[in-house]
Amino acid sequence: MVKITDVARHAGVSASTVSYALSGKRPISEETRRRVEEAVRLLGYRPHAGARALAGRRSNVLALVVPLRAGINVPVVMRFAVSVVTTARRYDHDVLLLTQEEGEEGLRRVADTALVDALIVMDVQLHDPRLPLLRDLDRPSVLIGFPADSDGLTCVDLDFKAAGEACVEHLARLGHRAVALVGSPPEVYVRQTAFAQRVVQGFTAAADRGRLSSAVHPCEASPAAARAVAEQLLCEQPALTGVVVHNEAILEPLIDAFEQLGLRVPADLSITAICPDELAESLRLPVTSIALPSTEVGTRAVELLMRKLDGKDAPEATLLPPRMTERASTARRALA
To answer: CA-to-CA distance for 273 and 297, rounded, in angstroms?
Structure first.
């Protein structure tokens, strides 16, 4: 089936230009219109019936694109999804949840059928292959996450780089000189998922500034992996006294593993985390943490999208500052 992107490629224009040329919603030069009409004729393009029926009015549906890839913490993702759905309902919009790993093709399919008015895209990678299409679509979009190049895109997220820095700075203020980051599963880093990379950048930058000994260790989301990482850390960094955890699934198993290896938290080892407040508060040893503001991020994403749908200006970058709550898992480093 010929798609609008095929017509755009043949005519040497963007997909949005093809849409405007066919709908008459915006003025297009005669030369461009002629190229588009010629491409339509040669390729036999036929706009989707749903798109024709919806011309000139909204579907009142938003797409939430959240591919459930390996290494993703589904309960955390669902917190964002609930926030998006709840906020969208305040604006009389429903949400179409897209969880398959389809990349550009999935976005094209949704855009070409005019099922939705706009898109919210999650699990953003630093060099995300979906970005060129998102820049080219004739529908507004908001990314929950910041790619390496966010020009021309609207992005919102926790400032994960600042969060990584804040965790290290907190440990440094308590006198810790050897620290480690226990991070997301390895495949998350292989994909260069933006939020995980930003945490590493912040952690490393703060450790280097403070001249701390530091290491970064990805970790699979299982108790066995947590135990293996704890053993590896104590072998490689015998002076280790501070740990930052950015992996919700192994937070409690990791604390258990360190204690089974003879370290008391926080007397011997201070632990901080980047995770939902509810998780940090619920553990048998409440953990000092930077909150994962899923409700605020989801709300902001929908609000930004509504501004764009209404033709209003929206800031391209919205970074939420990290908010740390000190709890029982951190203490001043004991002097030898």
So the answer is: 19
Closest to 225 measured CA to CA, from 203, 249, 192, 196: 249
Q: What pTM, to 2 d.p., does this model score?
A: 0.82
DSSP 277-296: HHHHHHSSS--EEEE--HHH
Count how many Cα atoms sit within 13 Å of the Cα of residue 321 in the half-sphere of its side chain: 2
Cα–Cα dist 183/196, whole Å: 8
CA torsion 159→165→170→172, rounded to 10°? 180
What does the radius of gyration of the chain's CA atoms come to, in whole angstroms? 24
**Residues 137-184: pLDDT tens digits?**
878 999 999 999 999 999 999 999 999 999 999 999 999 999 999 999
| Contact between residue 162 and residue 321 where contact means Cβ atoms under 8 Å apart | yes
Token pair for 304: 């930004």
Give the separation between CA 72 and CA 115, rounded to whole angstroms: 27
Asked if 258 contacts 230 with a C-beta cutoff of 8 angstroms, the reply is yes
